[in-house]
Amino acid sequence: MVPLAGAGLALVNTGLGRARSAAHSMVAALCVMAVAALVYAIVGFAWQGIAGHPGHALVVAGKAWGWIAAEPFFLRGLRLGLSPTALVILLQVFGVGLAGLVPLSSGADRWRLGAICASTVLLAGFTYPLFAHWVWGGGWLAQLGANCGLGRGFVDGGGSSTIQVVGGLTALSMTWILGPRRGKFSAEGMPAALPGHNAVLVLLGCMLAWMGWMALNSAGAMLFAGAETGRVPLIAVNTTLCAAASAVAAAVVTRVRFERPDASLTANGWVAGLVASSAAAAFLKPAAAMIVGGVAGILVVTAADFLEFQLAIDDPGGAVSVHALGGLWGVLAVASLADAGPHGQWLAQLVGIATLLGCVLPLTYTLNWGLDRMYRQRVEREGEAQGMDLFELGAGAYPEFDIRGDEFLQK
Amino acid sequence: MVPLAGAGLALVNTGLGRARSAAHSMVAALCVMAVAALVYAIVGFAWQGIAGHPGHALVVAGKAWGWIAAEPFFLRGLRLGLSPTALVILLQVFGVGLAGLVPLSSGADRWRLGAICASTVLLAGFTYPLFAHWVWGGGWLAQLGANCGLGRGFVDGGGSSTIQVVGGLTALSMTWILGPRRGKFSAEGMPAALPGHNAVLVLLGCMLAWMGWMALNSAGAMLFAGAETGRVPLIAVNTTLCAAASAVAAAVVTRVRFERPDASLTANGWVAGLVASSAAAAFLKPAAAMIVGGVAGILVVTAADFLEFQLAIDDPGGAVSVHALGGLWGVLAVASLADAGPHGQWLAQLVGIATLLGCVLPLTYTLNWGLDRMYRQRVEREGEAQGMDLFELGAGAYPEFDIRGDEFLQK
Amino acid sequence: MVPLAGAGLALVNTGLGRARSAAHSMVAALCVMAVAALVYAIVGFAWQGIAGHPGHALVVAGKAWGWIAAEPFFLRGLRLGLSPTALVILLQVFGVGLAGLVPLSSGADRWRLGAICASTVLLAGFTYPLFAHWVWGGGWLAQLGANCGLGRGFVDGGGSSTIQVVGGLTALSMTWILGPRRGKFSAEGMPAALPGHNAVLVLLGCMLAWMGWMALNSAGAMLFAGAETGRVPLIAVNTTLCAAASAVAAAVVTRVRFERPDASLTANGWVAGLVASSAAAAFLKPAAAMIVGGVAGILVVTAADFLEFQLAIDDPGGAVSVHALGGLWGVLAVASLADAGPHGQWLAQLVGIATLLGCVLPLTYTLNWGLDRMYRQRVEREGEAQGMDLFELGAGAYPEFDIRGDEFLQK
Question: N or C: which end of chain B has fewer CB within 10 A?
């Protein structure tokens, strides 16, 4: 079921983009999931590993801190069965693709397909497994509990940090590296609204993602946070309530601010609720899950505006606010609201957030900046005007339909 | 998997509606599922309850008849695990959303988003849990067997009555309260054909709904009708055969009547087959499931015509014929064809049907009529002309496509 | 989950076809799945049967060779429970629909709905169950191991042969019987490109099919190839890696040949990878699954060209190259790469392939040719010009959108 989350995100991204780049957006999504799965199977898993398996550790202050795993490449020699190892690999082959889909949305309408694949290699082959080792592979963030007495160490059941924030910070890096779409900002820096081309796809994507997320949160909580099988109904209920509260909050906030509820932001609210639910869904009471969702919905609408108007960031699908901020809030929610949090859990979660902002963000920015030096990531000017479909794939997504040019934006 | 049924119904509704209301239809579907889940978690479940748990009962003729449950609000204090309680909550959080989606289809192109949410609050917070308590929560309809010796009491495994008929009767109420779309009926009362805007979405919705329904019927039969796990393959096969027979019957009937098979009615036949299968899927032989489906398919085509031409009801998506009539037929099928029906089962099912028509229909009509007094449910005249998307959301679903105005209907 | 594969194939077929036949394509897909399920339940399963159950056998060289089963019609008297019998029926009710969807894609834009249903009756009622009995029902191909010492006999876990090749060879027959679409080949025999009308649907279909295939391969391997439950994660990982490698290979090959990666062929590559993975997914190492996929991706692009330019076959959705060739390659892969292949397995697989080409292809061609004599399968000339939607269903799929006529092809 987890790949439904990927299909859902792909639809959300495509629906929020332009019609002239719709085929490109879907092909890129399929390629990202394909490349991510292949690269992760070849090298990524070797570096992420499994908690309790041997790996490389640094000894600091008399204690061993795991920083990278040492499993065989190509999934060789692994005993595949209903073992935790096999289930982790299965879940991660999907999860790493999900992380790779997040930046797609930020680079919509201007990110070249070849560069997307190359960037996914970096993410699935290095950035993702490295951080996931720290959190899920028995690495140093997970050891904060045993080594320093900080609660249970950094806890993230379903990947609010490993999948969503890592993907979201890569998305943020890409908005900086690619720059805004032509026509997004006027000479005075005022942003123009570039509406998505198909709201039905966006909302269908939300519904498919919901199903994927319930599976992701359930599987993740059992494999990585020690939740027993009996918590699955609670996890699914909490995931649903968190997304529902977030979507309703986003609808209400946009209704109040713009007089009308906004379809895209309501959808983004729904996804942000899913994102925020991942870390803590197994440990929250249903009422707390509603609160986490409500805050996520308010956050995503506010942040989307702030990014666009204050920071002049052009993020067509809202990946930074939905996945990076929604995920960070989800990580915090573990400490603040979950009923499983012993003393010190707050600090452990904050150390994790500091690591994401202070270590993962520079890493993913540097890797993608370096890639851009060697292999230009942004499409040529004419490609952007023509649309990614015609320029990069040689055919439009909807050849029999009349598609309007940019003149509809003047309305 | 059950939410796929919701995604499927949302697509069917949207595809059968107009292009200028497509985003509104999908946003409304997401909001209905969100609001229904939240309200059900807050108060609905408290009133539906679980069979065997304490609740309020009336003593009539020396016997206690349960009429409403008394669980805590906010799902508080519930032991969530793989207990029946947790699984019922999980299934119902999805099921109540499904019931809420049914009337959406009847109110297409004229029902305001705010009113949709308010109406969903009434449905998920009161009407649905009340009737579901009577059937699934150990209430008086379920007690007909023990108290009066009527078979096993009223039996509905997968929600033909609780979800589909309750939703369908609310849909019927909404067609009365909202009135027909402008242009639907000429001055002489002749209905015009207002075709759906995207047949691909409608049929994709049918396929997604299929999967959701197999999960719904399986889970419901185990939780509410005492079916053992081993019946799951039979339930899935019967659900499939019932839908298949119903779609084929609808295609054949429309082929005979109109010379051409009708895509929308074939799709409606498919969904009606799913609806009719819910109550009895666990107890039918495969050949009987085909008969139940065939009858449902004939019924839905005939009823759709009758409602439109004789009763002048404008039900864009056919919710009344598909969900209300399909569901009632499914409830009857338990008594007539299921191999589990002991003596008296017929009477129990008829008491259930009488309750739906004589009690649930007036209740849901009154609640929505009262809501309409306080908070007008139908959109302004100009909103209907402009389309719900632009008027209520401020943006169309397909801004880059050329959409024809009403002139295409003259053809 | 398996029906998601059907929904996925339906979307791929529809997206690769013309806008004026989109509703027809989706309705036909639903009807194929419905008719196939009904016919299979009525007579098909009786002839396919279960390994170990009594059936009809021919005695040749002193050994009994099963050629057809003898189960009751209408699934009568079968003990439905969590028995292998019930699970086989459940899986096959979906699988036979999947096989029926394959030829749809080859007959796009010219195959009449009535003839499609009649052809599906032949497939689901005779061709499919006959061959499936030989492979999965304990028939003579499965007995090659015990009777002749050829490895384990013909092995196909997930249906590369029974579902995909049988469907693909029927698709090939239909391209011959129906002939090419008007305008596909110029007077000089040069093929014109007739692009699909909606690339987003095609790629969404790929993603949904992925999920269905993981379920199909897992269930098939356990029921038909003796794989233990513990292999499910391996099967899902291998299915994913095989599809991923195939899609990437197809994208790279089209990039090299046409300077641009081709969206449709990348999608076809993905599906071909799924198809090729079915037979052997339970027995491959992950690295081998990548190789199987990579070869499938190269094969499908090369074959699509060869069929169109050399053999003048008009196969709009590429069903012959994707399903027939991809499936044959999957069958071979069992012998060449799987770690479970003892001596003689090669020969067993080759006997199976020879049977498909020398026996199933003539059978399915003859049946459909005979059907065409009695009941013309191709639509009238005017129907093709007008579009299948208007001509056969009386309404277009997208009545509110402006659809271009054939003039867009001149560009």
Answer: C
C382 C-beta neighbours (distance < 10 Å), count: 8
CA distances from A266 to A261, A363, B41, B97 (A): 7, 32, 21, 17
> Using an 8 Å Cβ cutoff, are A197 and B398 in contact?
yes
C229: DSSP letter:
G
For A1, A221, B332, C399, the CA distances from A208, given in Å and listed in that order, are 10, 20, 34, 27
Helix (H, G, I), strand (E, B), or coil: what is residue C80?
coil
Q: What share of chain B is helix, strand, coil (3-state, %, to 5)?
A: 70, 5, 25
Where does residue C126 fall: left (phi above 0), alpha (psi -120 to 50 degrees), or beta otherwise? alpha
Dump pLDDT digits (tens) for B71-109. 888 888 766 667 788 888 999 999 999 999 999 999 999
Phi, psi of A180 (to 5 degrees): -70, 160
Angle, alpha carbons B191-B197-B202 (nearest 5°): 100
Distance, CA of B362 to CA of C292 (rounded, Å): 63
DSSP-H helix ranges across C165-231: 166-178, 199-224
Measured distance CA(B316)–CA(B314) in Å, rounded? 6
Q: Report the residue from B211, B247, B403 with minimal CB separation from C34.
A: B247
Q: Other CB atoms closer than 10 Å to residue B134's CB: what's the count?
A: 27
Residue B369 touches chain A, beta carbons under 8 Å:
no
Element (H, E) at A327: helix A326-337
> C85 in contact with A at a CB cutoff of 8 Å?
no
3-state secondary structure of A57: strand
Residue A235 scores a pLDDT above 50? yes
Is A236 in contact with A282 (CB distance < 8 Å)? no
Give yes or no for B286 touching C (CB within 8 A): yes
- Strand-strand pairing, B63-69 and B55-60: antiparallel
CB contact under 8 A, C31 and B287: no
DSSP per-residue codes, B237-267: HHHHHHHHHHHHHHHHHHHHHHSS--HHHHH
How many Cβ atoms from other residues are within 10 Å of residue C43's Cβ?
18
**What is the spatial distance between Cα A281 and Cα A263, in angstroms, rounded to a whole number?**
26
Q: What is the DSSP string of A153-219?
A: SS--SS-IIIIIIHHHHHHHHHHHHH-PPTTTB-TT-PBPP---S-HHHHHHHHHHHHHHHHHHHHH
C87 interface with B at CB cutoff 8 Å: yes
A23–C263 CB contact, under 8 Å: yes
Q: B392 and chain A: CB distance < 8 Å anywhere? A: yes
Q: pLDDT: is A406 or C234 the higher one?
A: C234
State the number of CA atoms in the 13 A half-sphere of C270 facing the CB: 34
Three-state SS for C109?
Answer: coil
pLDDT surpassing 90 at residue A29:
yes
Confidence (pLDDT) at B406: 73
The Cα A299–Cα C199 span in angstroms is 34
User: Which residue in this structure is represented by tokens 């009337």?
Assistant: B103
Whole-complex ipTM: 0.93
Beta bridge partners of C64: C59
Rounded to whole angstroms, the Cα distance separating C55 from C64 reads 11
Question: CB of B172 within 8 A of CB of B105?
Answer: no
Distances (CA, A) of A374 to A392, B127, B215, C110: 19, 63, 50, 49
C394 contacts on B by Cβ (under 8 Å): 258, 260, 262
Distance from CA of B5 to the nearest CA of A (A): 10
Quick one: which of A396, C263, A269, A11 has its CA closest to B400? Answer: A396
Report pTM: 0.94
User: Which of C23, C82, C86 is opposite residue B199, by nearest beta carbon?
Assistant: C23
